[in-house]
Amino acid sequence: MTSGGDAPGMNAAIRAVTRAAISKGIRVKGIYRGYKGLVTGEIQELYTDSVSNIIQRGGTMLKTARCAEFMTPEGRQMAYDNMRREGIDALVVIGGDGSLTGARIFAQEFNVPCIGLPGTIDNDLFGTDTTIGYDTALNTIVEAIDKIRDTAASHERLFFVEVMGRDAGFLALNGAIASGAEAAIIPEYNTEVDQLEDLIEHGFRKSKNSSIVLVAESKSKGGALDIAERMKTECPEYDVRVSILGHLQRGGSPTAHDRIIASRMGAAAIDALLEDQRNVMIGIVRDEIVYVPFTRAIKNDKPIKPELLDVLRELSI
Questions:
Q1: Residue 201: pLDDT over 90
Q2: Which stretches does DSSP call E strand in the chain?
Q3: Long-range pairs for 272-276 at CB < 8 Å and ≥24 separation?
Q4: pLDDT per residue over 249-265, tens digit each?
Q5: How far is CA 231 from CA 29, 159, 227, 244, in A?
Q6: What does the pLDDT read at residue 208?
Q7: Are residues 83 and 118 in the same domain?
Q8: Closest by CA position to 42, among listed 54, 30, 50
Q9: For residue range 252-305, what is the model confidence (pLDDT) as tens digits?
Q10: In the structure, what pLDDT confidence band is assigned to residue 245 with cuts at 50, 70 and 90?
Q11: From CA 32, how far away is CA 192, in angstroms rounded?
Q12: Is the CB of residue 239 less than 8 Å from the CB of residue 155?
């Protein structure tokens, strides 16, 4: 199943899980619309041909949905009953933090072997260098900012560009470095310093005819709109604009990198089940497949490397 927000490369993972399993004599069933489909019994057997011509497609052929019922013991019991009725012995869950949390709870309650694949553009799961969809989203952001830069320079404006990431600044920080942006405002450093004040004090040269700042969406900071309003009040001399990239970051054909890691992780999920692994996420560390217990992947915050902020500051002078 795929669960939570969609991410480019999920289809490549579905294809890999299906074909790796079939090649080892294991039957595969696709659960449509994530945990909701498990609760309602929306389950179909998948064959080799079922996953043909999907590796290049964004989104997820199995669809995804939020499911309030699965958050209740009664809903999880219905899910387990449907699973047993379909003869399903183990689950492969492709998704982010919330999806793997659901898998961990389900596995504990019903002793079901669950393997997680890190499918999220946020890149916020601990224990893996990268997640499925992150590289594609990052490239989408860079392409968008390249276009914004043209109009920013033409009108001599300061643009605040909001990107996804929730409580993780990987997209904002690495997107800023890759696009040559002047700065990034990320949630990891909200409590340490007033990032906007620091930006105003050190981040802008009057000789620059335009500036672009990436802002990670964040409940604590309010996102790019709130920061832009502050900027207009504190520095009215700047011509400030806001661009919120939104859901376009989730879409599009996955990059080669995302297709490759999704394929490797999908095949590794079947190997993990055959090795009697339980309740682990498949990760990639230093280009090697690793098994990460759900508790480590979910509970630990994935750290931002401080030296990346230093690189951004040095290169934006």
A1: no
A2: 28-31, 43-46, 91-95, 114-118, 158-163, 183-185, 211-216, 240-244, 280-285, 288-293
A3: 272/115, 273/90, 273/92, 273/113, 273/115, 274/24, 276/113
A4: 999 999 999 999 999 99
A5: 52, 11, 6, 16
A6: 58
A7: yes
A8: 30
A9: 999 999 999 999 999 999 999 999 999 999 999 999 999 999 999 998 889 999
A10: very high
A11: 43
A12: yes
What percent of the chain stands above pLDDT 90?
75
Q: Residue 191: is its pLDDT beyond 50?
A: no
pLDDT value, residue 231 = 85
Q: How distant, in Å, are the alpha carbons of 216, 250, 271 from that of 140?
A: 15, 9, 32
Q: Is 240 helix (H, G, I), strand (E, B) or coil?
A: strand
What residues make up the domain containing 72? 10-133+254-299
Count Cβ atoms below 10 Å from residue 283 Cβ, excluding itself: 25
8 Å CB contact between 85 and 41: yes
Alpha helices in 62-214 (DSSP H): 73-85, 97-110, 134-155, 170-179, 195-202
Strand-strand pairing, 288-293 and 114-118 = unpaired
For the question of whether the overall pTM of this predicted structure is more than 0.85, the answer is yes
Verify whether residue 276 is a known catalytic residue: no
138 and 127 inside one domain = no
Based on the structure, what is the number of domains in the chain? 2
Dihedral pair phi/psi, residue 41, rounded to 5°: 80, 30
Same domain, 266 and 128: yes
Q: Which residues contact 10 (CB under 8 A, 6 or more apart)?
A: 2, 59, 60, 62, 94, 119, 132, 133, 262
Asked whether residue 52 is domain-assigned, the answer is yes
- Write down the catalytic residue from 122, 124, 135, 258: 122
Collect all residues with Cβ–Cβ distance below 8 Å to 192 and sequence separation of at least 6. Answer: none
> How far is it, in rounded angstroms, from Cα 167 to Cα 147?
26
Contact 125/2 with Cβ under 8 angstroms? no
Both tokens of 179, joined, read 């696009």
CA–CA dist 282, 264 (Å, integer): 9
Q: Write down the pLDDT at residue 209.
A: 58
Q: Using alpha carbons, list the distances in angstroms from residue 299 to 125, 290, 296.
A: 9, 17, 6
Please say if the pLDDT value at position 205 is more than 90. no
